[in-house]
Amino acid sequence: MIDLRSDTVTKPSDAMRDAAHDAEVGDDVYGDDPSVNELERRAADLVGMEAALFVPSGTMGNQVAIRTHTERGQELVVDNEAHVVKWELGGVADLSGVQARMVDCGPRAVPTAEQVRAAYVEESLHRPGTGLLCLENTHNSRGGVAVGVDAIEEACEAAHDLGVPVHLDGARLFNAAVALDVAPEALTGPADTVNFCLSKGLGAPVGSLLAGPAPFVDRARRVRKLFGGGMRQAGVVAAPGLLALENVDRLADDHANARVLAEGLDAIAGISVQEPDTNIVMISAEEAGVSASDLTAAAADHGVAFNPTGAYTARLCTHLDVSRADVTKAVDRIAAAVESLRL
Ligand code: TLP
Fold first, then answer.
1. 236-284, pLDDT tens digit by residue?
2. CB contact at 8 A, 183 and 21
3. Is any ligand 1 atom within 6 A of the Cβ of residue 141?
4. 87 touches ligand 1 (CB under 6 Å)
5. 210 in helix, strand or coil?
6. In whole angstroms, what is the distance from residue 333 CA to residue 2 CA?
7. Interval between CA 214 and ligand 1 midpoint (Å)
8. How many CB atoms are closer than 10 A to CB 245?
9. Closest to 304 in 3D by CA, of 271, 278, 326
10. How many other C-beta atoms can be found within 10 angstroms of the C-beta atom of residue 104?
């Protein structure tokens, strides 16, 4: 099976497994795990922040950030397709008691300054006040869009002018940086905090980092504990995470594979493709009159796995465990699957 469901499906390399075996460990809740401490330091440096916190998942990183930034009842301004509101089980309401004021950012993927100002709610006797702006880069549900520095700066500046902090869901931050050929700090600098994942394109088995100013990270550490994310000898997962940081540059290979995949799929009659910025390819089979569930089921029968995202749309991800040859094979198999549905 060629597994294009997500870049989360990568298996740890032998070097990562060895690193886990050999890791120096301690009790991280006491701050005693040298591997975790090193990872947090390296991660903070990498995104130009003062400190970082190792968390088990991107979801926890985002939800800890939102809880740390906000007070119950406040509003969170966010794109209506953002992961934090679409794919995190209503965590913003459940875990932080905030309500989302959703903005349709369209293909731009982040709000304009005008949209930020329009969504802002001033605290009053009748209104809760806006507590946070959340951005996402790359933007997953909008097709792995790499949002440029100018758009990030514009949104952050508008929020800051209103006294609203900004959290960046950078689960795939390095995909954005590589695609745009900018330093990660250029994308994170305008925001107050950022979460990035080790367990996606970078290939680690587990883990994300929430980075920001040291006092924020201190408070986030307590929230992580509250959410059950205080890990003990977490060096066994931090050590492979340190190796994952070496996989940043190779994300360009995934992006090149995504372009080949997109071109191949676009050539199949009835399939239309959104040109990929990074490692995510969004397709529609509407013209072929084929539903996404039929398409993904037929493709699985032909040996390619990917996920439906709507009635006719589906998402395919390239990653560390998918070669150029796999991508070419995947195109042939999907073409055969579409053909089988036309018969
Ligand atoms: N996204 C997963 C699914 O949940 C959709 C995927 O396969 O892409 N932010 C963004 C932008 C993400 O894409 C994801 C994972 C997360 C946060 C959450 O990360 P995890 O899965 O580590 O909780």
1. 999 999 999 999 999 999 999 999 999 999 999 999 999 999 999 999 9
2. no
3. no
4. yes
5. strand
6. 10
7. 25
8. 16
9. 326
10. 10
